[in-house]
Design a protein that fits this description.
The chain has helices spanning about 1-5, 40-89, and strands at about 25, 35. A two-stranded antiparallel ribbon has the order 1-2. The protein is mainly alpha-helical. The chain has 2 helices and 2 strands, in the order αββα. The longest helix has about 50 residues, at about 40-89. It has one domain. About 0% of the residues are buried.
Length: about 90
Amino acid sequence: MAYKLYKDNVWRDNTIDHIVIDSIRIEYMDGSEELLDGDAINKAHEQYKAVLSEEQSKKDADWRAYRIKFAIIFAIFCFIGLVILFIFT
């Protein structure tokens, strides 16, 4: 997440296309540390992508439910409008 926040200001110029991370040192708030390298980085990255994918799927499902509710309410109001128009014409 921090990279997403600062990705536009990390490099001094535009010549850098990508980076390769060899290891990651994580320092937790309780002072303990964890070192990830090689396959551990790839595994953590896959888990992170899975969490993001799950969150996005939930957002998509919520948005679909919202659109369906909106469509139903809109259809009801259109039907009521047509009935009123038919009665008064």
